Predict the 3D structure of the following.
Amino acid sequence: MARTLESYRRCSYATLEASQPAKDTQSSYHEYLKLKAEAEALQQTQRNLLGEELEHLGAKELDQLEHQLDVSLKQIRSTKTQLMRDQLSDLQNKEDLLLETNKALRRKLEEVNATLQSSCEAREKNVAYNCNPTQQEEFFQPLRCDSTLHICYNPSVTNQTNAAENANGIIPGWMLDF
């Protein structure tokens, strides 16, 4: 009897299992059709949003499409504005950081310059004056030249020139000779 019941169970459950794949296949096929129709509807909506295939739409559907585009445009602008604000805030923070860094570098430069200047001053006090200037120092020395200009110099006129310069005070004597 136990064997008979066991055989019965195997056979009855085997028929149930065999009928179950048919139900799964049928439900899967219905789900496939449903998803395929939804995908086609989404593609049609996308084409409509892109401005394609609008001929078959009525006035009410066009109004809905326009409203949907307006809402989407507002959301896009809002997102863009928020992104720009975030970028502006980041840039302001970077600017503040760079300004602080710049100030710190200026202070450090001033300290280094002050240190160099004080060390140069101390060196000048400790070093005796050098009578033979270096090549660089000679370059910056003022020119030493005679303040009187002598064109066609005639030594016999020199005494007359000095007298004319003293009398006039403005025009050099060598200009009066001509």
Remarks:
- Residues 128-133 have pLDDT under 50 and may be disordered.
- The first helix runs from residue 2 to 49.
- DSSP finds five helices and no strands in the chain.
- The radius of gyration is 52 Å.
